Amino acid sequence: VQLQASGGGLVQAGGSLRLSCAASGNIFTINEMAWYRQAPGKERELVASITSLGATNYEDFVKGRFTIDLDNTKKTGHLQMNALKPEDTAVYYCHAGIVMLTSPLASFDHFWGQGTLVTVSS
């Protein structure tokens, strides 16, 4: 199983970006997906998460600006980021808990995608 994150780039403050995270491999279902970010010199932090039932959680610093979604039919999740601020500048990572089709039983594991850089200029 692999997670491929994309959609990062350079944007001015107040602008928007939409990050995508596509899962591939022998996947039965994505149980949950989350986005983390890591700014230079800082530790990686949770941004938002979503379960396969659609329950979402947002950290306070993105509430009202970011929206997370997950489409299990396409095995893809997104992070819509609006009203971006310079302090949102970071490498963004997707993370997912995935149920895999393995013989004779299904198995579960967590995976990280590679990061995608988001740079917000002031």
User: What is the oligomeric state here?
Assistant: single chain
The description of the largest β-sheet is: 7 strands, mixed
* Alpha-beta content class: mainly beta
Rg is: 15 Å
Give the helices and strands as they follow along the chain. Answer: EEEEEEEEEEE
Q: What does this protein structure show overall?
A:
- By secondary structure, the chain is mostly beta strands.
- Helix content is 0%, strand content 61%.
- It is built from no helices and eleven strands.
- The strands form two sheets. Strands 2, 4, 5, 6, 9, 10 and 11 form a seven-stranded mixed sheet that branches.
- A hairpin with a 6-residue loop joins β4 and β5.
- The model has no long low-confidence stretch (mean pLDDT 96).
List keywords for this structure.
122 residues, 4-stranded antiparallel beta sheet, mainly beta, single chain
Task: Give the secondary structure arrangement, pairings included.
Layout: E1 2-6, E2 9-12, E3 17-24, E4 27-38, E5 45-51, E6 56-58, E7 66-71, E8 76-81, E9 90-100, E10 107-112, E11 116-121
Parallel strand pairs: 2-11
Antiparallel strand pairs: 1-3, 3-8, 4-5, 4-9, 5-6, 7-8, 9-10, 9-11
